[in-house]
Write a structure and sequence with these properties.
Layout lengths: L12 E7 L4 E7 L3 E3 L3 E7 L8 E3 L12 E11 L7 E11 L2 E3 L22 E5 L5 E8 L2 E8 L8 E6 L9 E3 L4 E10 L7 E4 L4 E6 L4 E5 L3 E2 L2 E11 L9 E2 L5 E6 L8 E7 L6 E7 L3 E3 L2 E4 L5 E3 L3 E3 L12 E6 L14 H9 L6 E4 L10 H4 L3 H4 L6 E10 L3 E7 L7 E3 L8 E3 L3 H8 L5 E5 L24 E8 L2 E2 L23 H6 L5 E4 L14 E3 L2 E3 L5 E6 L4 H10 L2 E4 L5 E6 L7 E4 L4 E7 L4 E8 L3 E6 L5 E7 L7 E11 L4 E11 L2
Parallel strand pairs: 18-27, 28-29, 29-30, 32-33, 34-35, 35-37, 43-49
Antiparallel strand pairs: 1-2, 2-16, 3-4, 3-15, 4-6, 5-6, 6-12, 6-13, 7-8, 7-11, 7-14, 9-12, 10-11, 14-15, 14-16, 17-19, 19-20, 19-23, 21-22, 21-25, 24-27, 25-26, 28-40, 30-31, 31-34, 35-36, 38-39, 40-41, 41-49, 42-44, 44-47, 45-46, 45-48, 48-49
């Protein structure tokens, strides 16, 4: 599933130039000889001696606070091999191509700035010119409050005459065309009206690609197995720009060249385990190393010149059976909610998102959950796409989609096997693979008890519609497969109201109390924990912070950990299904919990003083470890202040009967958090 370019797919130019000083890059790929239906030919090229012109300024992508966009200027020169008749014209849309289909309804909030025609000195100023023909330029509505430049030629346009569009014209003092502080791929799709009837048709054949991304790595991301037996392990190193965090991004770069060495630790005399020779254009590198002694490790990586350094997630080497850990299981990290252009969000394509997940994002499993109600959603194409990326033992790709309702709330659906399975949408759709389920009761009737699906509720505390004050969990509808609760995403925390990570940075964006994870547990709900990015930039599992008019999108990029007994679809799905899972704000901390011998997701009979065993291995100092009953009562709290912490204690005798939930939450000194799925105790006298 690739982004098809038409009948002439070769790219004539591929030129990388600095953007945003030395900290970012703009890649312009100009395809020549775009041919449109109706025998219209068009030459599209970028201005200047190498068919492009770019000027740049401002600060860098990686370490900039959200909202600090940068600016570029470039020219697009278009010519037609055939004459355009009077009234004919040209339109340029920002979008992508998916299997040859234009996706111009994508969420262009994450694209280039919205062009304007004035006043002089304005941001995103667009100007146009021709060699001699008169023209009229206007802005055509492109959806979501966006606009596309449209040029009409009242007297027509002779064959071969060039039309120049200058995006981000700085000649009158303007800053240029805005570029968001995120990795970006956007095609400038050329449409033409040949006969002057007002009908614009897409040119067939390569359309220019605008790509921006961070450059000049300032640190290394190091990923290794969280739990392993002694012996060989694979370590992945990714050069990145920016450290991530609550309001900062950490973006992979591919312009680093040089040797990176991997050591057992950062200690001065730590043994060298292996090395990677990076070439320019290489986004990540793998090396096999041997760790043959039990214990927690944090591997160290540094470039040969010492300029780049990084520390891995905790690596727990276990020789033999460890009673606290699920027997025969290892931790796998993944994302099961992320969006692309196909579902109306972002500008990346689904195949790019899966490829990114298994590459620079260092994920073990991934599901893309695009909106099934979007006009660009094509389930027949999407449900089989994960098969291209699924590689048992190395990477697991699952199919999924989002069912969205302002009345009932947002949910995403994960499928173990999507072959021959229909998707469901809350809105009517013309997609032959998607059926209409307008209410939550309809969705429950169709898939509520289907063992092939898992339903995840997400951002339950987000007050999107001021008239809908409560999230509808569908109590009594038979939603037996609605088992997972996304506690955190880049939108914010839904664990409880008025937290340190409120929805979009403002408690005013939250529903009234009653829709959070803690509220649900207090009401007797039985849900397991996930965390995710819910990212709208097509980069699952990677910290991307951005500030929009409606508020902050946090740089903490949530991820889900599962204790899987096999590294394939069955193993990942089964772990989520039974609750052997936990979520974090992105830190790949190792957390293990047993209560009266029961694992997270399980129910156990309790009497007297049940034994609690836990272990936490952090990526930073562990600030707090808390055990909560029914989401309300704090029954135990520890503040170790160390990287590694284990505890073994008994719950005090509690005057309770019936079933009660106990879940663990962890806070690190750097603000990162983790949440473990509950254990339920059936108390008996």
């Amino acid at each position: 599933m690739v982004e098809q370019q038409g009948e002439t797919p070769s790219m004539k130019n591929s030129i990388r130039s600095p953007i945003l000083g030395a900290l970012g890059a703009l890649l312009l790929v100009a395809g020549l000889s775009c041919r449109q239906e109706g025998a219209i030919t068009a030459d599209i090229a970028f201005d200047g001696p190498a068919h492009f012109a770019v000027s740049t300024e401002s600060a860098g992508i990686g370490e900039r606070l959200p909202g600090k966009e940068s600016f570029v200027t470039f020219s697009l020169v278009v010519g037609f091999g055939d004459r355009l008749l009077p009234g004919g014209g040209l339109r340029i849309e920002q979008g992508r191509l998916f299997n040859g289909r234009p996706l111009i309804g994508t969420d262009l909030r994450y694209a280039l700035g919205d062009p304007v025609l004035g006043p002089e000195g304005a941001e995103n100023l667009l100007t146009a010119s021709t060699e001699s023909s008169p023209f009229e330029v206007s802005l055509h509505p492109a959806g979501l409050g966006r606009h596309s430049p449209q040029i009409v030629f009242p007297e027509g346009l002779p064959a071969g005459e060039k039309v120049t569009l200058l995006f981000g014209d700085r000649r009158t003092g303007g800053p240029g065309m805005k570029v968001p502080p995120i990795p970006l791929k956007i095609r400038l799709l050329c449409y033409a009206d040949r006969v002057g009837d007002g009908t614009f048709r897409l040119a067939r054949g390569p359309h220019p690609l605008v790509e921006s991304h961070a450059v000049e790595a300032d640190r290394l991301r190091v990923a290794a197995p969280s739990v392993t037996a002694p012996g060989k392990i694979r370590v992945r190193v990714v050069p990145v720009r920016g450290g991530g965090g609550r309001t900062a991004s950490s973006l992979p770069v591919d312009d680093f060249a040089g040797e990176v060495e991997v050591f057992l630790s950062h200690e001065k005399d730590a043994p060298l385990l292996g090395s990677i020779d990076f070439q320019r254009g290489q986004a990540f590198g793998d090396v096999e190393v041997v760790v043959d002694r039990p214990g927690p490790y944090r591997l160290a990586a540094r470039s040969a010149d010492g300029g780049l350094r990084g520390t891995s997630n905790p690596v727990i080497v276990v020789d033999g059976r460890e009673p606290l850990l699920p027997e025969g299981c290892t931790i796998k990290w993944g994302s099961i909610q992320s969006h692309t252009a196909v579902g109306g969000h972002a500008a990346a394509l689904q195949n790019e998102a899966y490829d990114f997940a298994r590459g620079p994002a260092c994920l073990d499993f991934c599901s893309i959950s695009d909106h099934s109600s979007n006009s660009s959603f094509r389930w027949e194409e999407l449900r089989l796409l994960p098969d291209r990326f699924d590689d048992p033992g190395r990477f697991v790709a699952l199919a999924g989609y989002e069912w969205t309702s302002e009345r009932h709330g947002h949910r995403h659906v994960i499928l173990k096997d999507a072959h021959g399975v229909e998707a469901w949408s809350e809105l009517p759709t013309d997609d032959p693979g998607t059926r209409h389920a307008p209410t939550l009761a309809d969705l429950a009737e169709k898939i509520g008890s289907d063992p092939n699906v898992l339903i995840v509720v997400h951002h339950t505390t987000w007050l999107r519609d001021r008239s809908v004050l409560d999230y509808d969990f569908g109590f009594g509808l038979g939603l037996n497969r609605q088992r997972l609760f996304e506690v955190y995403s880049w939108h914010g925390l839904s664990e409880f109201n008025r937290s340190s990570l409120p929805i979009h940075g403002d408690v005013g964006n939250e529903r009234r109390p009653g829709s959070s994870f803690r509220d649900l547990l207090a009401a007797g709900g039985r849900y397991f924990v996930t965390a995710d990015s819910d990212g709208h930039v097509g980069l699952p599992g990677v910290p991307v912070a951005i500030r929009r008019k409606k508020g902050l999108r946090y740089g903490f990029s949530g991820v889900t950990a599962v204790w899987a007994d096999t590294f394939d679809r069955e193993g990942i799905f089964s772990a989520l299904e039974c609750g052997r899972c936990y979520g974090t704000t992105g830190a790949r901390m190792v957390i293990a919990l047993r209560i009266a011998g029961a694992l997270p997701g399980e129910t156990v009979s309790g009497r007297g003083q049940p034994r609690v065993q836990l272990a936490v291995h952090g990526t930073d100092a562990i600030d707090a470890v808390q055990l909560l009953r029914d989401g309300q009562l704090l029954v135990a709290e520890r503040r170790p202040g160390t990287l590694d912490f284990t505890d073994d204690f008994s719950l005090s005798a509690e005057p309770v009967t019936g079933r009660h939930s106990y879940y663990l939450r962890v806070e690190q000194a750097d603000g990162q958090m983790g949440w473990v799925s509950p254990v339920w105790i059936e108390w008996t006298e």
